[in-house]
């Protein structure tokens, strides 16, 4: 087991972690501010990926594709917020789950209707394709490295937005006290639409960025959505910081355990059963991680409320 | 006889920098009504929470019938003989009055693990529940849904559910809250007779009721008991007048 | 008789009359559809106990459905390939005998529900939903990676398993068996709702603080309800696998958890026959809308949205109005 492999896998884990963060940040923000559990967040991820693939297919420009992804996801988010979601803020979680599950059905089948069942492909832009040589002679795909950079940049931007801007103050106030913020004269329904669209745009961005290294297809959003749930359960619902730490933990655990556990098991048992047992356990590793965190802290690492 | 039914020994609880309970020692003796009064934010709810088990004290202990119950959960304390009522009625609103009372009878008799026979068909549960409802004057409303009760009736039911437990001690959190003059008077009369059955630790804002009922009063200010004594002693205690009565008058 | 009782009676009558008609008209496909509806109703009846009475919004009930399915798949797979399930420390062979399969399904579901419940019930609200969902996903990925039993492709079982005294290959006989189980479970549910446990659980959903204050532990009540609920859904999974003679990881999928929940909501949460009304409607929609367009899930989504936003009582609520008080 070489150091190079380890570093490579750590980078892979980081890359999937920061992309997860883009999903989880929106989810946790929406939960923290509006108290809404949004299953359709994965659909917005998918919308972003399809918009990007469609625009890249026509124009050939990756930048335009990303812009399209952000715009389409934000727009879709704003539309469903106004049409459906805002009726759910005062409902119980069961209604929220069902209504947003209904939205998944509509989004997924609608997308299948428009684009068909075959996956679309979104190419990595030429400028970012190919490997780059890191210090120590490690060859690593430039695009993945760029994803880590973009993810960290967005995380920083989000931190600035929430800590340093007027809107951020309103968002933080909204988390604590809805009536208070209404009393301050902030148009709460506009704020909610804005937060929802922001979360949607982050999801759409993640969908487009990841879509370039995986295929763009219906149903791509839900596995990521559930991982993002694991992330925010670990991090504590409503906490952006928790989402960030949780996302990195989940990304790294998922990647590293999958690669290294079979190797470790091979030290103790035959190769074939080691590979099979290793991959079985690895597929459950993040859920085991989540259980451990919950036993230790039932409301997550940075969660205030249970 | 100075045996105590319920007692706290030096319980202390902080929330961050705020000391919500500071070394509180109070006791409840057979046949008495011991009222806890204090201005808003004095830590009455925190105290009740620690006595009933929803909050764990940072230090000190709670004793029921001479037994340390500090480590017991709320439901264990209820089974050990603590019957509480809530400041804001905590009733199963979708269920009927009788069903709510039966819930208490079930908990007290440990019959909650029956999956087949009908709860309302259990004669012993029903007798117990109906007796409690009759005592508080809800016999006529047994088949009403809780949600359809008036506020006053809910307060009565709140007391009735505690009665079904046949507890060793009552802990009542503002039972008069929101009752009109008539309702308060009735409930005062009822609690007056109840103390013979089991002593009552009474947290109450209604001073008429407190002065009419209490054998002893403890005054809680900023998480500390500043005085304990008879109604007359408390009325004339200068510290109490300054800290509490002076403010609220 | 209340309108709800009439509605329930009509549903039950339909579940007898329609397949009877199908036998006379020699329409085996209709019987298969009815069997599907009955088994889905059973799965939803399981969830209805946790969700409807206990208020536990479990988005991971496919776990139990899948466990039931794999209990059937694994036992039947070993029976049909004449390989023992395990040889050490003692020999266990596969079986094609339904009661044994059901027993395994029920026991494993109960253990899984107990462990998942123990973990998830430490939390409430949104955490509970997400955690049950995550545990469902854990089982899903485990099934995919479990190559011994088909991995992602699942397993086909060539011949339906046996039940003493019945020829389960005859559609109407298998249907009758499933319906009988559903009826037994509904009778049990009806008793449960009025039992002391049901009353306590119902109160634990509404006011946990009250339940504690009268000396009961709401978490234990909910845990037991979760186990009962999981067991019933697990049994439904074993039957479902036998209906299709096929099991695959999709039985564990979170979409399926969502669908079970839809059945309950569509029919009416907490209503005794809600799962039945929901499952019958679902299968009918799937069949008729699915015949018109392959994108029928769009319409299912719209209907579900309409129910959530405008018709909280589901179909039972629309037909029979608000629930009457007991007694």
From TrEMBL, chain A:
Its main location: membrane. Keywords: Amino-acid transport, Cell membrane, Membrane, Transmembrane, Transmembrane helix, Transport. GO terms for molecular function: transmembrane transporter activity. CDD domains: TM_PBP1_LivH_like. One of its GO terms (biological process) is amino acid transport. The keyword Cell membrane applies. It is found in: Cell membrane. InterPro entries: ABC_transp_permease (IPR001851), BCAA_transport_permease (IPR052157). It is a multi-pass membrane protein. The keyword Repressor does not apply. GO terms for cellular component: plasma membrane. The chain crosses the membrane at residues 20-40, 52-85, 97-122, 142-162, 191-213, 219-237, 244-265, 277-296. Belongs to the binding-protein-dependent transport system permease family. LivHM subfamily. PANTHER family: ABC TRANSPORTER ATP-BINDING PROTEIN (PTHR11795:SF442), BRANCHED-CHAIN AMINO ACID TRANSPORT SYSTEM PERMEASE PROTEIN LIVH (PTHR11795). This is Amino acid/amide ABC transporter membrane protein 1 (HAAT family). It comes from Tritonibacter scottomollicae (Epibacterium scottomollicae).
TrEMBL record, chain B:
The keyword Lipoprotein does not apply. PROSITE patterns: ABC_TRANSPORTER_2. InterPro entries: AAA+_ATPase, ABC_AA/LPS_Transport, ABC_transporter-like_ATP-bd, BCA_ABC_TP_C, P-loop_NTPase. The keyword ATP-binding applies. GO terms for cellular component: plasma membrane. Transmembrane segments: none annotated. Residues 6-247 form the ABC transporter domain. PANTHER family: ABC TRANSPORTER ATP-BINDING PROTEIN, CONSERVED COMPONENT OF ABC TRANSPORTER FOR NATURAL AMINO ACIDS-RELATED. This is Amino acid/amide ABC transporter ATP-binding protein 1 (HAAT family). It comes from Tritonibacter scottomollicae.
Automatic annotation (TrEMBL), chain C:
CDD domains: TM_PBP1_LivM_like. The chain crosses the membrane at residues 38-57, 62-80, 100-119, 126-149, 169-190, 223-240, 260-285, 297-320. It is found in: Cell membrane. Its main location: membrane. The keyword DNA repair does not apply. InterPro entries: ABC_transp_permease (IPR001851), LivM-like (IPR043428). One of its GO terms (molecular function) is branched-chain amino acid transmembrane transporter activity. One of its GO terms (cellular component) is plasma membrane. The keyword Cytoplasm does not apply. It comes from the Bacteria. It is a multi-pass membrane protein. Keywords: Cell membrane, Membrane, Transmembrane, Transmembrane helix. PANTHER family: ABC TRANSPORTER ATP-BINDING PROTEIN, HIGH-AFFINITY BRANCHED-CHAIN AMINO ACID TRANSPORT SYSTEM PERMEASE. This is Amino acid/amide ABC transporter membrane protein 2 (HAAT family). It comes from Tritonibacter scottomollicae.
